[in-house]
Amino acid sequence: MAGSVAVALLAGACAGPITSVTPIPTPGSTSTPTPATPSATGSPGTAGSPTPSTSASNTPGASTTPPPGVSIQIVPFVDKVIAVFLATANDGTGDLYAVEQIGKIVRLHADGSVDATPFLDINDQVVYGGEQGLLGLAFHPGYPADGRFYVMYTAAGAGANTIAQFTATNGVADPSSEKILLSIPDFAPNHNGGMLAFGPDGYLYAGTGDGGDAGDPHGNGQNPQALLGKILRIDVDHGDPYAIPATNPVNRGMDWAPEVWDMGMRNPWRYSFDRQTSDLWIGDVGQGLWEEVDAEPAGLGGRNYGWNTMEGLTCYNADTCDQTGLTLPVATYGHGQGRCAIIGGYVYRGSATPAADGTYVFADDCTGQFFSLDAATALATGSATITTLLKTELAPSSFGQDQNGELYVTDLNGTIDRIVFQFGGG
Prior knowledge:
By secondary structure, this protein is mostly beta strands. It has helices at 2-12, 375-381; strands spanning 70-79, 85-88, 96-100, 104-108, 120-121, 134-139, 148-154, 161-169, 172-184, 196-198, 204-208, 230-234, 260-263, 270-273, 280-284, 290-296, 310-311, 314-315, 331-334, 342-347, 359-364, 369-374, 387-391, 396-401, 407-411, 415-423.
């Protein structure tokens, strides 16, 4: 049932706001809406160019089964928590933090127990439903000695994409400690991005969608001065409310807004840093035909990933286009067989399954399919074969990574599960 609900949200998100939601009980809250997932489809007439002839190296159809002896298992961890993201504070406790779209963050313990009282409750500050709500969370690298953590949400009222700082003391968050760092006006309820992550450089990165509707009608993706349709990068340890890192593109002679790190994004719903190499991996949700994986060597930035000149490897709404200065994805997959929206994941660096080291794992929201590719190959050659690892009944909304590098997936059906690699057919 949740899968069909997710499909409806994805198909309808570009058409306008969700005007009603179905409450579902969840721990630590009285009700929760139908959760957000990134929009992949557009209104009639906005689909991209005709299906291209792409190489087998970057479509799931090229490899519909994993290599012999390689598989993953989805192992239950927590149920009755409908989360859109899962974060760790890297504080040595093993705790994880589930982000609920309605504006609450719930603490999960390593044994699967859930705190009855939310870690943070800002429900009255958030507009939620469809693709809006509390969408991202990142703890300061110095946490818990430095009690700061950061959230991204669509604000009640006009729905501005908001990045805010809060403070926790002895593991207890103070809702009154909010300090808003950025409030980015938005014109539509979809394509809000929402991902926050601290890079290995200590700077805070934020993903913003192109602002919504369909086809990027305001041209934000290709406007280097706009904060929508971007990966942003700011220094929260200096300045008020933040400073611009010396290596941001604007300080390298590029005529970009100071906060912009990368441009040409449609809706970078989830991205992550490889904890071993510091490379950046982005799952950018497509319009009507193609989903894409973008890979960026550590510390590079200043890239233009193409939207809305390109959708995946094809010209968007055109037979030809000027690709000068664009960085193409390392992998794409099409919307056949019910696929609709990429859920970017992580490069596996855990210790439980050394043989899986260097495998980038991601998923599709509508089909519940889990995919992988080899991270080193993708970065070295500019493309990599997508492998289909598993087909499930889940409706994945996000991945999570614990302090040991082990992976989790959040499911719109109301579960949070561990991802366990298996080799040798076992």
